[in-house]
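Fig. S4 source data, part A: sequence.
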Amino acid sequence: MPYGDAMNARLRSEERRAEIVRAALEVIAGRGYRAASLAAVAERVGLTQQGLLHHFPTKEALLVAVLEERDQWDAVPDSRWRLDLLASLVEYNAMRPGIVQTFSALLGESVTEGHPAREYFTERYGKVRAAMAEVLRAEYGERLPNGLTPERTAPLLVAVMDGLQYQWLLDPEGVDMPGAFRDFLTLLGERGEDGGIEESGEHGVGGEEREG
């Protein structure tokens, strides 16, 4: 096959794969991963199931492509996340409920044993916690105003972002997701009345200093 024809065929294949991923996002958003079928995705893009399998040989392979595509949309060059960019991401997510719903549905399903996305989310959260710790360190240094380290605060930051998404999906009129996240960022920058929080291990129960 001439080089030009081969390039055109590759581009057509990539375009078709992208179309299939978008269709899979829509189907998963509406039905959940377990109820979503390859046949339903194939029908949405005008393919037979066999034709879809030419691009994605298994349902699991298609799921991985969906998750990777979603991560690409949230990517920042060189991973240069900042707290203000995180707030902008939350605002952006509020404008794309279908994507947020798909991600949240897959996340909820992935906690079950044997789910094909479980390993993906486990690894992803490890990376996200580490990245958020670096964001906090760049903003506050080794201690936040409340006395916590970036590593201890990072899981809380991630929990707020994902937890707000669930509340917002269930009650979009009652939950201002971007506003609530900005409120949380304000709390991160506030210092307690005693000027900070003591590390566990420095004091015993009731605030008494430990001997030795």
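Fig. S4 source data, part B ends here. Residues 3-31 form the longest helix (29 residues).
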